[in-house]
COMM domain-containing protein 3
Amino acid sequence: LSADNLRALRLCGDDDVISDDAFNALIPDACSVILGGEADHPGGKICASVDQRALMEVFTGVMCLLLEAGKLDIDEDQLNLLLDDCNFSSSKKESFVSVFNENRSKIREHLGNIGIQLPTLVDVKWRLDYNLKNSSLHKVNELKYTISLKENSSNEPVEFHCSKEELQDLVSKLREACKALERASQV
């Protein structure tokens, strides 16, 4: 966690900044936001008396800790050690660990869905064209391949044209990539 997040978590441990009741109301809201919900007023009416700047800092710190704990799949002992370092009271630690354990699998699943997912090739079509003349009516007599690649993420195929030599070069590079992948999977 960053220094700012640790400072925010230390604010959580300070009972003068956020009470146990306010903290207990804040944790489920943080989980809800992580899982796609909304929290216009984190902690609701219980947190109305808390300084709003400190509340948002604490809320952000709690969300970051929930995300990092989910990402790293840390166990209760490690989590308790971190919360001890942030001066959490035993009741705040129990509340946090309890809510985290209830939502651990959902947070991890949600984190698994975040990120760049590359498209998958689902179909390849090709066509061979023989050009006798160009638009200037000059004789060219050349072969051109039209390759159409269909991805799972798009309705429109990616289409390109190439000569026999360019297609051979592409096939050669694809074979090299396959061999590299095989070598990497054997390691």
Notes: The chain is about 55% helix and 15% strand. Strands lie at 121-133, 139-151, 158-162. The helical segments are 3-13, 20-34, 52-72, 76-85, 90-112, 164-186.
